[in-house]
């Protein structure tokens, strides 16, 4: 029996994921991983579109002034995509060493440090090509049998990713529609993207980092209003338009999972994820803070970020910035 993501949400945690996997095939018939045009050793997909020339071009256009921080704070109790949905661990932080308390300050030197634990898909983060596959294979053909170990992937991990410096464009779908936040589970269409771009007076170019605003960060950090199962986000058709027709290098959004949930495809609980990562080699960023860009109506900028070199990781926390350009 096939179940919707809404039904699965009621099951809770790991039981929901197990039920979905048991209820549906791994992917629709005919879906298969893409072959990289950058050769058999490629592990970063469309990030190969960057070059020294493309980075220099956007950096030379920087208009000195405000720098927009697009990253979220990480804190205990923060909303996340996957603790409620799949039983994944939440963000935790605790002190390892602290100064003596109540001692009157006799210590000459105070020493403090802490430890953290988290899913790598917590807070503002980038999904790498090893995050989703089809039929046990990643983009460009790496198989789980060959490349997956107990401590990560030997292929397409966060450690293989270069710093990202590129032209960035925000598509403010929520503002174009005249709403603070898109309705729950709303699937953004190609026409929605085109309409927002027209109202902004913005054009996309090959190799852009394209960030889509749904307005959901206006609800942050209210966990009761931010659930993976009710996320508005990109439809598969909109993702295809950005990846194939507009040849975007990286995508991103201000929501928990880039795409809208629940999926309408009974065979694939995250069709945009598998399409972008496994078929097209397009990485993407989730949980971006786009509210200040929207307020100031900044739609074009230099986008700069870099994943942590987490060896074999399927995702990495990042702290991206946007700097307006001329």
TrEMBL record:
Domain of life: Bacteria
Species annotation: Stappia sediminis
Lineage start: Bacteria, Pseudomonadati, Pseudomonadota, Alphaproteobacteria, Hyphomicrobiales
Sorted UniProt keywords: Signal
Gene Ontology annotations of biological process type: L-tryptophan catabolic process to kynurenine
Cleaved signal peptide residues: 1-28
This protein's name: Cyclase family protein
Keyword flag Cell cycle: no
Entries under Gene3D superfamilies matching the protein: Putative cyclase (3.50.30.50)
GO MF terms, alphabetically ordered: arylformamidase activity
């Amino acid at each position: 029996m096939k179940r919707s993501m809404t039904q699965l949400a009621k099951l809770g945690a790991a039981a929901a994921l197990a039920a979905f996997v048991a209820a549906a095939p791994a992917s629709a018939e005919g879906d298969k991983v893409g072959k990289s045009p950058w050769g058999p050793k490629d592990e970063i997909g469309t990030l190969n579109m960057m070059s020294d020339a493309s980075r220099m071009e956007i950096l030379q256009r920087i208009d000195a002034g405000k720098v927009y921080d697009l990253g979220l704070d990480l804190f205990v109790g923060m909303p996340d995509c996957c603790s409620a949905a799949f039983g994944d661990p939440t963000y935790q932080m605790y002190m390892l060493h602290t100064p003596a308390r109540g001692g009157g300050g006799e210590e000459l030197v105070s020493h403090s440090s802490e430890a953290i634990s988290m899913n790598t898909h917590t807070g503002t983060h980038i999904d790498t090509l090893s995050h989703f596959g089809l039929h046990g294979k990643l983009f460009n053909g790496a198989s789980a049998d060959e490349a997956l170990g107990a401590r990560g992937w030997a292929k397409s991990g966060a450690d293989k990713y270069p710093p990202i410096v590129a032209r960035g464009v925000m598509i403010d779908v929520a503002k174009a529609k005249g709403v603070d936040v898109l309705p729950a589970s709303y699937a953004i269409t190609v026409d929605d993207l085109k309409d927002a771009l027209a109202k902004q007076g913005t054009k996309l170019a090959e190799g852009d980092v394209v960030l889509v605003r749904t307005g959901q960060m206006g609800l942050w950090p209210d966990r009761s209003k931010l659930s993976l199962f009710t996320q508005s986000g990109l439809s598969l058709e909109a993702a295809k338009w950005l990846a194939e027709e507009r040849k975007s290098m990286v995508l991103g959004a201000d929501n928990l999972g880039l795409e809208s949930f629940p999926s309408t495809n009974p065979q694939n609980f995250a069709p945009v994820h598998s399409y972008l990562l496994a078929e097209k080699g397009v990485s993407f960023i989730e949980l971006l803070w786009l509210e200040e860009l929207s307020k100031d109506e900044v739609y074009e900028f230099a986008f700069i970020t870099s994943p942590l070199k987490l060896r074999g990781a399927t995702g990495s926390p990042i702290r991206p910035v946007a700097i307006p350009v001329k």
